[in-house]
Amino acid sequence: MPTILYFAWVRDMIGTAEEKADPPADVATVGALAAWLAGRSESHRAALSDLSRIRAAVDQQFADLDAPIEGAREIAFFPPVTGG
């Protein structure tokens, strides 16, 4: 069961920095996980509904939405980072 981490406004919208999740077997990618998580609550849906505004990492490595999550220990969702 992976730990799901949320950062910045994603964390603020969902109301927690992390949670454990046990998605069904057919949830095999980062994008599918985000869609499944969006069904957990209204706050998850609000935070994860527009995936163009979200970046992800699987086991601390940046990952695309089609990246597999099988065997992952940690999956993080966060907004794009900009420098200045």
Task: Report on the architecture of this protein.
There is one protein chain. This protein is 27% helix and 23% strand. The chain is an alpha+beta fold and 84 residues long. Strands 2-1-5-3-4 form a five-stranded mixed sheet. α1 (8-14) packs antiparallel against α3 (42-48) and α2 runs antiparallel to α3.
Quick overview of this protein structure:
With 84 residues, the chain is α+β, with helices and mostly antiparallel strands.
- Mean pLDDT reading: 94
**How far is it from the N-terminal to the C-terminal residue, by CA?**
37 Å
Spatial strand order of the main sheet? 2-1-5-3-4
- What low-confidence regions span 5 or more consecutive residues with pLDDT below 50? none
Strand content: 15-25%
Along the chain, the helix and strand elements come as EHEHHEEE
Count of individual beta strands: 5
**Structural class category:** alpha+beta
Number of helices: 3
Q: What is the CA-atom radius of gyration, in angstroms?
A: 12 Å
Proportion of residues in helical segments: 25-40%
How is the biggest beta sheet arranged?
5 strands, mixed
Shape: globular
Protein traits:
about 80 residues, 3 helices, about 25% strand, five-stranded mixed sheet, alpha+beta
Write the layout of secondary structure elements.
Blueprint: E1 3-6, H1 8-14, E2 18-20, H2 30-38, H3 42-48, E3 55-58, E4 61-63, E5 74-78
Parallel strand pairs: 1-5
Antiparallel strand pairs: 1-2, 3-4, 3-5
